[in-house]
Amino acid sequence: MKILKLLLMTVILSILSACDGIQLTVENGSGSGTYASNAKVKIRANIPVPGYEFEQWEGDTQYIEDISSKETLVQLPQLSKDEVLQIKIKATYAVDPSAKEYDLVVENGSGSGSYLTYSVVMVTANNPAEGYQFDKWVGNVEYLNSPYLATQKVIMDKEDISLKATYKVKVTPTVTPTPKPTPTQGFSVTPIGESYEHGFFILRKFKNKLIAGAFGYSNKQKIFTYSPWAPASPGFSTKESVCDLREFDNYLYANTENQGQVWRTKDGNNWEKVLDVSPDIGCGLAVFNGYIYATENTLDSAPVEIYRSANGTNWEKVYSSGSSKRYLKEIVTFQNKLYGFYVNLEDDSTGMLVSSDGKSWSKQSAPMRFIRSYVFNNKLWLAGTKKYSSSGESAIYTYDGSSFKKVYADSTKSHISYISSIGTTLVATTTVEWKGKQGGATLIQSCDGGVTWKTMHRFNETEAWGIEEFNGAIYVATKQDGGGGKVYKVTGLCGTTGPDPTPTPTPTGTPGQWVKEVSLSSAGDLSGAVSMDLDYGRDWVLEADLNGCNADYRKRYLQGNNSEHIDLWYEGSSIMGFRLFNKKIFFTQAIKGSIRGLGATVDHWAQTAPGSFQSGNHKLRIEYLLSQNKSKLYWDGQLVGEWTIEKRNSVSNLTTLKYGRISGGALRYKYLN
Q: How much is the pLDDT for 12?
């Protein structure tokens, strides 16, 4: 027994020795913890009681940058090896001689009155009239955690506050709770592959392959490819999951939950690590104004950070939440702005970051925690979890750039996990419970633009996290804690299956083979012409050798069917102007280059990034990738423009392509599907 006690004492002393560092204790404030030498820690005084005001910091104030500021920094000293230090500081308060009461006016609710500064007041909207429901608060909503919660906590400031509860016609979301949904004729769900661990988190198409990012906690292969199904070789292995995949500048990037590592590949098989900032979790990826952005979170702690890179190898930090405990999973580009959706872990409030330049950020409210997003029909579709929802339900919201609208809800699921589309059909997945084992994740679809939703399939797995359209089918990624998650191929959505009374003729043009190759003669202003039959319902590539280009301002190189179709001209300042189909095919997001007229209803056109568009011999390549809602433009082998696109109306085939301002060359096109 004495020997055992001696061994226990030795272990305890070893543990204490291993914990050497600087112990910071903040009384009446936040920032307490154990820190390493030379750390810089943000501290913040607690809100005073009504009638008092923060006075100063006391204690070991030699380490505090500004003792008179309620929010300041502590610069910790350098310690020698095995040295320990305790620093104690305290926020102090004094009676505010100028304290007075300010008015809180609550229209259509309770909580009105006169209160001293720092008083905490609960405001609650009145019960709605028959047929209506609470919508949101308006007025001084900057004092609310969220304007979309009917009951709110308001902390009085040194000014009057006015709030008004507003209401809207009650909408009952369409929910199909059928445990065994009856699919339409021809509907099929087929498993195509499994991982080495629990399943999958994300799917993304890349260079005619489907790439699957795996979920798991062991150091095993995290990337799989299809078709055929196979682990990437060599791929890469990490101890945590792949949370997101995103294409940028001809690379596919993977953000992982393993120490915030970001990897990239040019072919889906060979990957290189390009970022390692060593927080606990990396997740979201987005492309905005010539940069790729990555979110990095410190689990259950602070800060959350956003990094960006213009070349994929050199990264800069463009946002930090400081000492605020915030979890930010999703980041997305919409209407030429960058949005990040988060939850504050200190008070469970939800919100979004908004940036027009990728470096300066503002905070706005959000009705719940959104974990995934998808741009469709000029709206941002948002998948939410009920964990931070006052209504106790997971939901799908739309956001039009100014307001949120709930279009679907399900109180039986913990998450709406993902949203995507195939053609005009919206699809989404649900998850029953994070790390649950009961099964029951579902695939739902909407055939009317998100107005109504129908459950199409119930999976044996509990979680379904990823969706991607690939080669005319939907693929779904599932996860089962302990193993068993798969990738499924889904066909037959929205009545597209079954016998077709008027079968579509087999299109001409074998995928991958040039349909037409012609020589181009010398031509002035669009004086040359080539007859074609180019189908905008398929993916295609058009290449042209343009010899002796004459780079004159606003002069056309190509123009199809009297300016309805392909339009390419020199815009000046080493920039090219580009249009696909006037008033029918719209550019919705610039990945490389820019968009002109964004937000208009007609005549969207794009501009490339600066390139070598001077007079001379050049090679042009246009990629029209309808299956990916994307178009790319290459000049002399360099990617100078990349945009997401949307075909909003039916379009006719391109039958005549005019060309001009060249001395000769060649033109060819082929289909990719």
A: 37
Q: Which of 629, 660, 634 is nearest to 646 (CA)?
A: 629
**pLDDT at 545 (0 to 100):** 86
Q: How far is CA 440 from CA 250, 370, 525, in A?
A: 37, 21, 63
> How many whole angstroms separate alpha carbon 498 and alpha carbon 492?
8
DSSP-derived secondary structure letter, 582: T
Placement of tokens 């994929």 in the chain: 312
Q: Which of 95, 124, 142 lies at the terminal end of a domain, its last residue?
A: 95
**String of DSSP letters for 250-318:** TEEEEEESSTT-EEEESSSSBEEEEE----SEEEEEEEETTEEEEEEE-TTSS-EEEEEESSSSSEEEE
CA 357 to CA 288: how far, in whole Å?
9
User: For the chain, how many structural domains are there in total?
Assistant: 4
**Smallest Cα–Cα separation from 189: which of 441, 387, 550?**
441
Of 408, 471, 460, 400, give the one whose Cα is nearest residue 432.
460
Name the residue range of residue 643's domain.
514-671
**What single string gives the DSSP state of each residue in 166-221?**
EEEE---------SS--PPTT-EEEEEEE-SSSEEEEEEEETTEEEEEEE-SSSEE
Q: Distance (Å, rounded) from C-alpha 637 to C-alpha 618?
A: 9
pLDDT in tens, 485-500: 999 999 999 844 433 3
Q: Please name the helix (run of DSSP H) or strand (run of DSSP E) that holds residue 7, with its range, or none.
A: helix 2-18
Per residue in 61-111, pLDDT tens?
999 999 999 888 888 888 876 788 899 999 999 998 888 899 999 999 999
Cα separation, 139 vs 164, in Å, equals 6
Q: Are strands 654-659 and 556-560 parallel, antiparallel or unpaired?
A: antiparallel
At 564, is the pLDDT very low, low, confident or very high (cuts 50, 70, 90)?
low
pTM above 0.70, yes or no: no
115/302 Cα distance (integer angstroms): 33
319 neighbors 284 (Cβ within 8 angstroms)? no
* Same domain as 537, residue 664: yes
How far apart, in whole angstroms, are the C-alpha atoms of residue 550 and residue 544?
Answer: 15
Same domain, 132 and 23: no
| CA-based nearest residue to 340, from 359, 312, 322, 313 | 359
254/326 same-domain check: yes
Q: Mean pLDDT lowest for which of 331-345, 358-372, 427-441, 523-537?
A: 523-537
Q: Are residues 617 and 571 in the same domain?
A: yes
For 365-385, the pLDDT digits (tens) are 899 999 999 999 889 999 999
CA dist., res. 630 & res. 636, Å (int): 20
The predicted-structure confidence for 147-175, as pLDDT tens digits, reads as follows 777 887 888 888 999 999 999 887 554 44
DSSP-assigned letter for residue 642: E
> What is the model's pLDDT at position 503?
38
- Nearest residue to 412 via CA among 173, 147, 149: 173
How far is 642 from 310, CA to CA, in rounded Å? 14
CATH number at residue 281: 2.120.10.80
Residue linked to tokens 């001077």: 614
Using DSSP, state whether 346 is helix, strand or coil.
coil
Answer for the pair 293, 307: CB distance below 8 angstroms, yes or no. Answer: yes
- Are residues 74 and 112 both part of a single domain? no
Interval 188-225: pLDDT, tens: 999 999 998 899 999 999 998 999 999 988 888 999 99
> Of the residues 385, 415, 445, which one is the last residue of a structural domain?
415
Which residues make beta-bridge pairs with 285? 294
Establish how many alpha carbons lie within 13 A of residue 14's alpha carbon, considering only the half-sphere containing its beta carbon: 6
Which residues fall within 8 angstroms of residue 69, CB to CB, at 6 or more apart?
Answer: none
Q: Do 274 and 371 lie in a common domain?
A: yes
